[in-house]
Fold this protein.
Amino acid sequence: MRTCHHATAPQPGRHGGRRAFTITELLMVIGVIALLISILTPSVLQVKNVARTAKTRAQLKVFSDALEMFYGNHVVGGDYPPSYWDSSGANNNPYADISQVSGPKNSYAAQGAQTLVWALAGADLLGTPGFVQDQMKTRYALNNGKPAFLRQGPIVDLTKVKIANPSASIMRTNFSPQPSAAVPVFPDAFGMPVLYYRAVKAPDGTPTYYPDDNLAFRDGHNTDGLVHPIYSGNDNNNKKINGLTAFVTYTKNFQITAAYQPHNPDTFLLISAGVDGRYGTVDDVTNYPLLTENCPHEFMP
């Protein structure tokens, strides 16, 4: 006898009987994922920035130690390196001498961010001969690709720092001779040059100061078009705060109230632009206390 089998509806939980997601449910899942990403992304970026800031602080410590070694080595120093090299001519420009084999040498200035590389690693990264103007060309001479005269160092451990060329778009154009983007700098963990300033005692006995001589930037703006607050150019930022220019205010030790006194008056300043890529803001990384309770609020944005 033939029996009849009646088709039965698939039972819940059996293979092949799973219910598909509806469009509404899929949109809800996507929305939850997007929400989680939006919550987590700032936290991840913040962690990265904290790590980069810590790395930059470690870099400044490496530079500080190396500068002290330069100061103590009377063969190449006996003083801290200059934070501005305006060579009296192309023959005294070590970077031009090693980058051009023949023909007339280019003459350009090297700002503090660049002379820091010359002092600690050498213009050709083969060691530094120090800073003696009338001997720069001979001291940087090469013989079969090696230094022809005794060099020291490199004084800085090149495995612990990076060397890079600054972007040509950030070089200042109203300076003569002009700094060149062909001259490398030490970038911080955010990719911006570490600025270096050497303290100067004026011949007339006035207090020590830091001249605004450094790797400068086109019209005092960063690549996003925002002004560096410490820029001393001819724009609206060239204002004075309590009688001092923005840069002088930035380097002032506000704990000393009787007279103007910069931080580190006998040594040097090292400055990183920090997370925002702007020199002169609260996230800068420096080798001196950046903020005090007496710092004018209108200066530090």
Q: What stands out?
A: Strands lie at 84-85, 110-111, 142-143, 146-147, 195-198, 240-241, 244-245, 268-272, 285-286. The mean pLDDT is 76. The chain has one domain: 63-286. The radius of gyration is 29 Å.
